[in-house]
Amino acid sequence: MATYDNSYSRFVAWTKIVLPLAALGLLSTLFLFARAVNIDGTLPFAKVDVQEIAREQRLSAPRFAGITRDGASIEISAASAKPDIKEPGRVTSKDLMAVVTYPQGATLSIDAPKGEIDPGTGKAVLSGGVDVKTSTGYRIQTEGLSASLEVTSMASHGKVEAKGPLGSLTAGQMDVALNNGQYLLVFKEGVRLIYKPAKGNEK
User: Fold this and answer.
1) Contact, 104 vs 90, CB < 8 A?
2) I need a labelling partner for 89 at 20 to 30 A (CA). Which of 32, 80, 115, 131 fits?
3) pLDDT in tens, 55-95
4) Domain spanning 2-201: which CATH class is it, in words?
């Protein structure tokens, strides 16, 4: 009887921790974007392994989706996510992938080993070596990246290296922003371009 009572007490204690964490994970998705949409028709975190959360306090394969106020759609997925104990509204993720699709059809695909999503500030911070691929054929690498979840705005954490149809490029900073109705990828601060002409233009 004592063993049963102890097991039951431990179960009750875990549920007091696990259920609020699961609820906070669900609530955070409601405020993650200005106009949240569901891409696949299911709620994020719809399938929650409560025992797994109790053991490791993490969520497996979370997925976020939404639309910014200027019309760009964002999809974010990760191998796992963990609520911040001190700031429950913030979620830290591992092996994060994001796809940004702009109204004109251009896309950015972003991979990062680590990421933090904070609905309270409306920002996502990616780190650990970020790899960005554009639909125009460019691959951009930088140590970290900060992005807004509410409007189209993105900035690298320092130096970037890029390769694409025009050649290779290095710069001290990269920004993505909406300017006069156009989504611009801007390199600045000591930009160096090694131009590679198209084969048809070579003599």
Assistant:
1) no
2) 131
3) 456 677 888 888 888 889 999 999 988 887 777 678 888 99
4) mainly beta
